[in-house]
Amino acid sequence: MRIVIAEDDPLLREGLALLLRAEGLDVVATAPDAAEFLVAVDTHKPDVAIVDVRMPPTHTDEGIVAAVEARRRLPGLAVLVLSAYVEQAFATDLLSHGSSRLGYLLKERVGRVQEFMTALHRVAGGGTAIDPEVVAQLLTRARPDNKLERLSPRERDVLALMAEGLGNAAIAERLFVTDGAVHKHIRSIFAKLDLAPTDGTDRRVAAVLQFLESGRE
């Protein structure tokens, strides 16, 4: 797995590189800002990019913009975005440009090495990984007038775990239910969120996007 890291904090940037190399991964380049990150992507054609949300010069959304541009230049690039605190709008923006190979984690998750590496490998393998803290805050911020209010408490639990990026088997294990029960809950979620099966829509992703959108002010 070839990785490029974009992070303006030199200690975190080098710490990440050391951690990943210790895990046997190939960190091919590190960058302190969005411009150098895009040059590194063009030069090294990595499999995965780990990108800070806020980078110079304005420290607003340079990382998100660069991540979207990097995926345009290198289709199939897996991107794991790191943020100092919950900014669910950025997670929504990322997923809106395509759901596969995307992750959004709080920086504190890096210190929990096993969780961080699990999320990294999930994203590199084509999945989605949303930080559990982001999901938890979205659950408390959901507006009372949205479709999520139609869901039962158990269905909301299932959707929250879907938003983290877990598959059906992992959800079943986490909730101590059968795979069949999870499948039934997901079918019910799709129905209650008015997500009819169509050729052009990934209903699982559409459900997660509705969930993420529900936390916006």
Which structural class fits the helix and strand makeup? Answer: alpha/beta
Q: What is the succession of H and E elements? A: EHEHEHEHEHEHHHHH
The CATH architecture of the largest domain: 3-Layer(aba) Sandwich
Give the tally of β-strands.
Answer: 6
From the 3D structure, determine the CATH topology of the largest domain. Answer: Rossmann fold
Portion of residues within helices = 40-55%
Strand order of the largest sheet: 2-1-3-4-5-6
Extract low-pLDDT stretches: none
The overall pLDDT average reads: 84
Report Rg: 17 Å
The CATH class of the largest domain is Alpha Beta
Strand percentage:
5-15%
| Large-scale geometry | elongated
CATH evolutionary superfamily of the largest domain:
Response regulator
Q: Could you give the distance between the termini?
A: 38 Å
Major sheet details: 6 strands, parallel
The number of helices is: 10
Tally of discrete structural domains: 2
Question: Descriptors for this entry?
Answer:
Sig_transdc_resp-reg_receiver, Arc Repressor Mutant, subunit A, phosphoprotein, transcription regulation, transcription, single chain, 217 residues, NreC/VraR/RcsB-like_REC, 10 helices, six-stranded parallel β-sheet, Rossmann fold, alpha/beta
Molecular structure report:
This protein is α/β, with parallel strands linked by helices. It contains 10 helices and 6 strands. Strands 2-1-3-4-5-6 form a 6-stranded parallel β-sheet, with helices on both faces. Helix 7 crosses helix 9 and helix 7 packs across helix 10. It is elongated, with a radius of gyration of 17 Å. The chain starts with a strand and ends with a helix. The mean pLDDT is 84. This is Response regulator. InterPro entries: CheY-like_superfamily (IPR011006), NreC/VraR/RcsB-like_REC (IPR058245), Sig_transdc_resp-reg_C-effctor (IPR016032), Sig_transdc_resp-reg_receiver (IPR001789), Tscrpt_reg_LuxR_C (IPR000792), WalR-like (IPR039420).
